[in-house]
Amino acid sequence: MKQNRIIKNVKIATPLGHSAVKGEAMGKIHYVDDAVIVIIDGIIEYAGAEKDCPADLLALHAYEYTDAGRRLAVPGFVDSHTHLIFGGFRPDEFSWRLKGDSYMSIMERGGGIQSTVNSTRNASAEEISDKTRWLVDRMVEMGVTTVEAKSGYGLDVATERMQLEAIRNLQQSAGAPLNVVATFLGAHAIPTEYKGRTSEYVDHIIEEMLPQFKDLAKFCDVFCEKNVFELEDSRRLLSAARDMGYDLKLHADEIVTLGGGELAAELKAVSADHLLHVSDEGIRRMAEEGVVATLLPLTAFALKEPFAPARKFIEAGAAVALATDLNPGSCFSGSIPLTIALACIHMNMTIEETLTALTLNGAAAVGMADSIGSIEKGKQADIAILEFDNLNYLPYYVGMNCVKTTIHNGRIVYDAKPIGNY
Ligand code: NIG
Ligand code: FE
Hints:
Layout: E1 5-14, E2 30-40, E3 43-49, H1 55-60, E4 64-67, E5 72-75, E6 77-79, H2 91-98, H3 103-108, H4 113-122, H5 125-141, E7 144-150, H6 157-172, E8 179-187, H7 198-213, E9 219-224, H8 231-243, E10 247-252, H9 260-266, E11 271-274, H10 280-289, E12 292-295, H11 297-302, H12 310-315, E13 320-322, H13 336-345, H14 351-358, H15 360-365, E14 383-386, H16 393-396, E15 403-408, E16 411-415
Parallel strand pairs: 1-4, 1-5, 6-7, 7-8, 8-9, 9-10, 10-11, 11-12, 12-13
Antiparallel strand pairs: 1-2, 2-3, 5-14, 14-15, 15-16
Helix pairs in contact: 5-6, 7-8, 9-10
Bound molecules: N-(iminomethyl)-L-glutamic acid (NIG) and fe (iii) ion.
The site of N-(iminomethyl)-L-glutamic acid has 13 residues, from helix 4.
């Protein structure tokens, strides 16, 4: 559902452009103080100073009106890395990690991803879609208007298909409150039935899964990690996926330095994600090849790992995106507010760079920078109106939701109760 809408009495802060913003330019934000945003059929027709808005535009259509009360509008947030579709939860593992257990040792004992695979294989499509919708509603309240969602908790044809169909159903559901981008992650772990036979499982993905999921997924991703899918298996899988027309993503250098950043550059992946332990060479090569570095601070925080080197990426001239990595294991959080706080406080990103990373660069990481990620003429009207009139509130209101109204395709999909003046 798309709408005609005029948002008046509003301020705007947005990056501009139709591709990822790289390096220092990420800090460049376009501000308009006394602005109006005119939306026709879900598309931004005008976003700029009220005094310059062509008068005939205002008379052209029947509009819904939103008075923003001089609050700040930013582009709807793009959560470009999530594992949104899963059965069960894993709170016990979290408690074990608090006592010193490590993420990889739990996984090697058959817990971790495999435990969610078991729960997902046993869940009904209806349970999965109800849970997904519950998670999505929380995201929309935090201003998310586009989410990337991965499969990867099936690791067999039937359950991977069930996950990808759940993603498609969410995409296509009438009145969906956000854009949904699907990623096939059959190479998320080696399923127990292939234990010790990683190469055979990769063959199975290439021969049986990739060809039949092409219409369901835009991206192919791999957990490229020591003792999971190492460089050679990852290269073989992703090259086959690329040949079949998938765009590429990698979980790279999350737990140890393996050369995932370099591999992403070699394969010209759209993004490499995590990168807590990326090498300097990986950073340099990613910047050179224009691979978006998608950093996931909530995961580093939840695993008590060091944060990814955001400043090094920016100084090397790379494009940085930020996302949540929402999943039932390493990071059961989809908190945009906490992502912002960690990026600004612990990764030393500026507030402006953080905004670009969560909007236009997130859009580039899902291949949609042409149509979303900024508030400018011709883009989809996906907008978050904050409670406040100033960008600085985003990290300052630490870990708390600053979003008052979320707009998707010109339609209000979330609106907090007005609280009055403060
Ligand atoms: O991005 N590391 C691989 N995949 C996820 C975690 C999945 C899980 O623990 O269930 C991640 O951290
Ligand atoms: Fe992930």
